[in-house]
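stage 2 :: seqdesign
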């Protein structure tokens, strides 16, 4: 969890911190409940503002998130987020994209720990092919891929912060085909050089291959929006399950913490979702809120619970969500 860094204000946690809790749809509420139980046991002290946002809300009201919800979120220090299903509405605007853009959450930080591996994917979160600049036609559609110097610089700086004290930074791109990636590569290289970091670059197709055949060569990867999205699901598969992985979406003032999986409608309501990604997201949140020891304690308890055989069906086990929560709570108790 050292991955996420600390709130840029470097604040110390106090009871006055406000966290917007958005459980969302599908398994979102199941795994967020688990994360909150673990945070309670760890002694996390913050005010919770529960917000009903997502597909369920859309089905009842025709709106997944209102402007008032967004304003309420902006009043909070950060967000703990479960997962949201996409409503079957052609005019639907993704809640996550609205939050990422509305709060300028430019850095998506995804640590992958498991199967003897430990690496971080740092994904630019606001531009690239997710620019939202699209022309949709019957015979032809276009999406504009946007790479800016400022956007590249700030994600490179964040990746370099995370790579400091670690082994190496790998810049992942496709600059042999996409001219927009030449700017990304040039900017990332120069930031890494200024920070005197060991740095290499790799084409995204080679990175996809190496993640499977040689994953322990990676340490910190930095890449653009779509490549980061795809590589991180691949990375989750490499370490064992989507259900294990957490993420932080960090901006200059705010941050949103969420497991990287979606709402998993196929297993929702069955009580078998793996809560580890959500629990680890809670730990990343505490790190950002200025409680690194609490974050470390949670992460150690998760690792011990997994090592002790606590496994949901996605990992080949037979545990239920609640069993994993209890195993993590027991490990935390044992640390005292
Ligand atoms: P969405 O549209 O919300 O992204 P999805 O089903 O397309 O939903 P995911 O929710 O990420 O995408 O699920 C992909 C697969 O991984 C599903 O089979 C799901 O059951 C499984 N999965 C995802 N998260 C978990 C979890 N926490 N525990 C167990 N299995 C999971």
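stage 2 :: out
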């Amino acid at each position: 969890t050292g991955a996420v860094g600390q709130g840029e204000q470097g604040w110390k946690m106090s009871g006055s911190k406000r966290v917007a809790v958005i459980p969302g749809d599908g398994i979102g509420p199941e795994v967020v409940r688990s994360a909150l139980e673990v945070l309670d046991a760890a002694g996390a002290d913050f005010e919770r503002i529960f917000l009903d946002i997502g597909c369920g809300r859309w089905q009842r009201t025709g709106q997944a998130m209102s402007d008032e919800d967004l304003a309420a979120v902006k009043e909070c220090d950060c967000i703990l987020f479960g997962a949201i299903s996409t409503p079957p509405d052609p005019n639907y605007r993704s809640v996550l994209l609205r939050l990422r853009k509305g709060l300028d959450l430019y850095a998506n930080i995804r640590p992958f720990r498991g199967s003897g591996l430990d690496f971080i994917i740092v994904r630019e979160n606001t531009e690239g092919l997710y620019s939202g600049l699209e022309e949709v036609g019957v015979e032809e559609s276009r999406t504009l891929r946007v790479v800016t110097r400022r956007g590249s610089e700030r994600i490179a700086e964040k990746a370099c912060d995370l790579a400091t004290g670690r082994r190496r930074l790998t810049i992942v791109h496709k600059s042999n085909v996409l001219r927009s990636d030449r700017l990304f590569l040039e900017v990332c290289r120069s930031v890494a050089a200024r920070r005197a970091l060991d740095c290499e670059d790799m084409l995204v197709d080679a990175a996809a291959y190496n993640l499977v055949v040689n994953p322990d060569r990676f340490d910190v990867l930095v890449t653009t929006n779509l490549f980061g999205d795809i590589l991180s699901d691949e990375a989750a598969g490499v370490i064992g399950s989507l259900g294990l992985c957490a993420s932080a979406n960090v901006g200059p003032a705010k941050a949103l913490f969420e497991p990287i999986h979606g709402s998993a409608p196929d297993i929702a309501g069955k009580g078998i979702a793996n809560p580890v990604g959500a629990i680890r997201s809670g730990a990343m949140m505490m790190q950002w809120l200025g409680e690194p020891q609490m974050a470390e304690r949670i992460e150690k308890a998760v690792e011990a619970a997994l090592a002790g055989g606590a496994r949901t069906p996605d990992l080949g086990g037979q545990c239920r969500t609640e069993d994993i929560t209890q195993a993590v709570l027991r490990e935390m108790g044992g640390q005292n």
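stage 3 :: structure notes
- The CA atoms of residues 51 and 193 lie 43 Å apart.
- The first strand starts at residue 18 and ends at 24.
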